[in-house]
Input
Amino acid sequence: MKNKMKATLGNKILFALIPVMIIGLAVMGVILFVTMNKLIKTQLGGQVLKTVESEAININTWLEGNLLEVESIAKTPAARKINNSFDNIDALNTERYKFFTTVYPERVSTIYAARKDAVYHSIKFNDGIYSIHEGSLASRDYFKRILAGESAIVTNPLVSKSTGILSTYAVAGIPGESGGNVGLIGRGIKMDYIQTIIGDLSLGKSGYGMLVDSSGLVIAHPDTNFVMELNLLEAEEASLIDLGKNIMGGESGIFRFTSKGVNSIAFYAPIPISGWGMAVLVSESDFYSSITKLRIT
Output
């Protein structure tokens, strides 16, 4: 009888504990799910950010290479004689133009040199004949900066005075014998080529790449209506202004924002040589819908 009472009491205790155990397991399951979900999101976001940082480094290194070539030309005897005569540097730049437009026709828009009075010569090629275009850089801010003492610059995109092609310019000062710069050497890089690089970035179904110059102006975007038209720092939406500040902050990171009712994530990284910032943007719903990875084709 006593054993039967003990068994009955034990069953009652067990039955009383079962709901508590079930609730406890359910709570633990929810906590585990939330924790693992957060961990996966964090790890996935970190992987995407590393890929964006790597691509930004590649672009920065490529721009540095362009700048190094221009700097080396600026130190040649042909360049140093520019204020006496354009003849030597025109001859050298013609050979440079032939090389770059043959090997990298999709990248180079112009090759040129300017004296200290802002008069420049660029190389042109029409109907099988190489010729010289003469103009003035007096209105160009980067020319003023070079003459003021900066050694080399990668400019924000500008429309070429000689070709009309939207380009960024790698320019270097020609050092004078007594100090300072006495002119500059420049090479135009077609923005179409850089925009293609950014356009090849994708993430999930809706993600895309974007490039912003040092003023906050969008210079690469899949929607061409934004290119050279939308300045993030002057946008109507406060969230886009904040996005611009983050992209241009000189650091890499992840920024969550809402624009036109869509919650999105931006993975961004700086391009220090030019002061630009690049980002890959994707909607939160797309990013978290499945395990995705950044695809660079």
